[in-house]
Design a protein that fits this description.
Strand 4 and strand 5 form a beta hairpin. Helices cover about 15% and strands about 40% of the residues. The termini are far apart. It has a seven-stranded antiparallel sheet with strand order 3-2-6-9-10-5-4. It is built from three helices and twelve strands; from the N terminus they run αβββββαβαββββββ. With about 180 residues, the chain is of the alpha+beta class. The structure holds flavin mononucleotide (FMN). Flavin mononucleotide (FMN) binds next to strand 3, strand 5, helix 2 and helix 3.
Length: about 180
């Protein structure tokens, strides 16, 4: 049985322990892009999940201190670009390695009919119209209703695990 000292919530540094637990979670790396009429921007985000199939929808959690948060607050649409394993440099650029428009020099970026940027050779691009936003703590949950999906050629996502980029490998091959 777990000792009382090790029980979740019984120690003062629960946030640090929560962070440590999250380090063990492998997450798919995305770059979320949006434009609000004048400004367009993108940033790396792993806090992404599917929400519902009726309607097809997803959630991204964005820190309120970021420029993308500011833009998403007034944007009507956004795109979740799911990176493939070759796109670590894109993730690095969009998580602070490069700033402003310079970020889009890393990777093959295109624009759709509205000017929304998408990574043309990403594993997938999920285009959304913003359906709702719910602030909580330091972040806001942006809910997107999926309006279109494009696929790249590979299905080999870039993952982030234990503070490092990695790839997924099948545990066993069934012939
Ligand atoms: C692997 C990885 C995943 C990240 N995931 C998120 C996330 O889900 N939400 C978030 O708000 N920031 C996340 N960040 C942090 C932002 O990408 C980073 O703060 C970025 O520089 C913010 O953009 P800005 O410089 O344009 O404000 C992540 C960073 C990395 C390296």
């Amino acid at each position: 049985m777990e000792s009382a000292a090790n029980a979740i919530g019984s120690v003062p540094d629960v946030a640090a322990r929560f962070k440590a637990a999250l380090r063990g979670v492998a997450s798919t790396v995305t770059v979320v892009t949006a434009l609000d009429g004048e400004r367009h921007h993108g940033m790396t985000a792993t806090a992404f999940m599917s929400l519902s199939m009726e309607p097809p929808s997803l959630v991204v959690c964005i820190n309120r201190s970021t420029l993308l948060h500011d833009i998403l607050t007034s944007a009507r649409r956004f795109c979740v670009n799911i990176l493939d394993e070759s796109q670590e440099p894109v993730s690095v650029a969009f998580s602070g390695g490069l700033h402003g428009d310079n970020r889009f020099a890393q990777g093959s970026w295109s624009r759709d009919q509205d000017g929304l940027a998408y990574l043309a050779d990403a594993q997938a691009n999920i285009f959304c119209s913003k359906a709702a936003a719910m602030p909580y703590g330091t972040h806001t949950l942006f809910i997107g209703e999926v309006t279109d999906v494009r696929f790249g050629e590979s299905v080999s996502p870039l993952l982030y695990h234990n503070a490092a980029y990695c790839t997924s490998l099948p545990r066993s091959v069934h012939l």
